[in-house]
Design goal:
Length: 390
């Protein structure tokens, strides 16, 4: 450590679930970690559940268990998904069952703040993590080290800088990575409801007129809405009174869960497909939304980011003793290990979004026939479940 610099093995820029999971994973592997992020905001006391909900796969659960975070969660606030029913825009229906796939559950529905506060607690007790509640404002990469300048005036030295700072990543902007972004011209509208009928730990999804509406199970008879709506329609939905929004969801879901009562404000976020031509740069690795952005129709965005974390931690754990964390060989191993998974999920989610956006009777008939065909193939459905579990 120099007079002006603090020295670490890795500096992680960006918090959220992905950045904080990466900090904890690398710290538990014995690395000295600088985390440049803000603590989680307190959850509003006047709403029963977060607006932001994630459907975590088996691979995400396994990572959080390995980090000893899953065990610290309030399991009364978690909801398993045992079944999933997907409805096309005609008569087609797909049913996925954890029992038929011989898995304990298809996913866990978890509030964002629940995981983030558990991560915050674990990080505060980790002697390997130094937390900087500041912003990064300068990155200087040299052959043997990277320097990260903070708004606090401090300068961090690290072998590796990890960009976990979201879709508009500052770290990525400091590299030569080329970004391609396509706006879906849709907004994800999220809100939570109390349902009159029991959801039976079932996740529901409807494709309708190029839009996608999902209801995810929450504890105590609640459900979480994720409505991928055309931007103008989303503005209209967000402007509705709570009872009016509930009525609109009831109509679109054909009253599947009976009368709905809105239990918190609705929020919206823009939807886009974003690809990056490289996940690495000299002494830099990108993870999470800084590395990829996909449509939420399969609920796999967070799972994809957490698999980035697991892979990066595994590559570092297996490194040869003579390599430091920023060694180009290690970074290329990370990038190669992630490319196929990221590419396949991007292709699948973007393809489905495009498929159900094509207007016309013929297109509707073809895609619903395809859904019916998949529904009649147990082995295909089992393969799809296995892929989704990560």
């Amino acid at each position: 450590m120099t007079a002006n610099h603090l020295t670490f093995h890795v500096a992680i820029v960006g918090g959220g679930l992905v950045g904080k999971s990466a900090a904890l994973a690398l710290a538990q592997a014995g690395q000295r970690v600088a985390l440049i992020a803000q603590p989680a905001a307190p959850r509003p006391a006047d709403v029963p559940f977060d607006a932001r909900i994630y459907a975590l796969s088996a691979s995400s659960q396994a990572l959080l268990e390995r980090l000893r975070v899953w065990q610290a969660l309030d399991h009364d606030r978690l909801s398993p998904v045992y079944d999933m029913r997907v409805y096309g825009d005609a008569e087609a229906e797909l049913h996925f069952s954890a029992f038929q796939a011989t898995v304990p559950q298809l996913a866990w529905i978890v509030e964002s703040s629940l995981i983030e506060h558990a991560l915050d607690a674990a990080l505060r007790f980790s002697p390997q993590v130094t937390w900087f509640d500041a912003r990064a404002q300068g990155l200087d990469v040299k052959p043997d080290v990277a320097h990260v300048a903070l708004t606090s005036g401090q300068v961090l030295e690290a072998d590796l800088v990890v960009g976990a700072d979201g879709a508009h990543s500052w770290v990525r902007a400091q590299t030569e990575a080329q970004v391609k972004r396509r706006d879906y011209r849709q907004t994800g509208v999220v809100a939570n409801f109390k349902a009159a009928r029991p959801h039976g730990e079932t996740a529901y999804q409807w494709f309708k007129d190029g839009e996608i509406l999902a209801l995810l199970p929450l504890p105590d008879g609640h459900v979480s809405l994720v409505w991928s709506a055309e931007t103008e329609h989303a503005r209209e939905l967000l402007a509705l009174e709570p009872a009016q929004l509930a009525a609109a969801v009831e109509r679109t879901t054909h009253g599947r869960l009976g009368e709905l009562e809105c239990v918190g404000p609705a929020h919206g976020f823009p939807l886009a497909l974003q690809t990056v031509d490289r996940l690495i740069a000299p002494r830099v690795a990108l993870i999470g939304d800084a590395a990829h952005l996909i449509h939420p129709l399969a609920g796999q965005g967070m799972n994809l980011g957490l698999r980035d974390v697991a892979t990066l931690a595994d590559v570092i754990a297996r490194k040869e003793p003579f390599r430091d964390l920023g060694d180009p060989v290690l970074l290329r191993r990370y990038e190669r290990a992630r490319r196929e998974d990221i590419g396949a999920l991007m292709l699948a989610t973007d393809g489905l979004q495009r498929l159900f956006s094509v207007p016309g009777t013929l297109a509707r008939s073809v895609r619903n026939f395809g859904m019916s065909l998949v529904g009649a193939q147990p082995l295909v459905k089992r393969w799809l479940v296995t892929a989704a579990l990560g």
